[in-house]
Design brief:
By secondary structure, the protein is α/β, with parallel strands linked by helices. Helices cover 40% and strands 13% of the residues.
Length: 194
Amino acid sequence: MTEFRNPVSIVTKNFLVTRDLNLLKVLAAHHAVLVKLSVNSLDRELVRNLDPRASLPNQRLEAVEALAQAGVPVGVMVAPVIPPLNDHEMPAVLAAAKATGASFKGTEIIRLPLTVAPIFVQWLERNVPGKKDNVLNRSRGKRGGRLNDPRFGKRMSGEGILAEQISQMFEVACRKEGFQEDGPELSTSAFRKK
């Protein structure tokens, strides 16, 4: 990407994105990169259980800070939002991300397509059995009684009262923290062929 100055958008859960800081800085100089760190909770135990192979929340926020200080456009993805496991954390996650340098944001409500659903149900049974039914019922409540809605424009946000409440809570927290609507527009003006 750097060699050809090809625009790239990166979404990651891992601090390791900072290992390529020198390359990302080159792309940033040409308005050809943006990075979003996915931070769905500040609760280390929850994150350790949800994403056992990904960086912990403080490490993801350290990555946000390192990227911002290097001049790389960086934002936060509060995703997946899993009511009632982490939806209440959205304001705190956004505040922490803003404090470390994130300038734009995004979110997605959990969706459970095809083979993902049974794996997630097993995860719930192992890790939060007392919340399993509540999580699944709320997920169905955002998707017309199903765990997934494959329709474009609905699959990431859901619909109905619960989806609207989550969206409103997210937007209020974003306004409070002063987040931009979206990340910067990437440019192809410096793209080069070999």
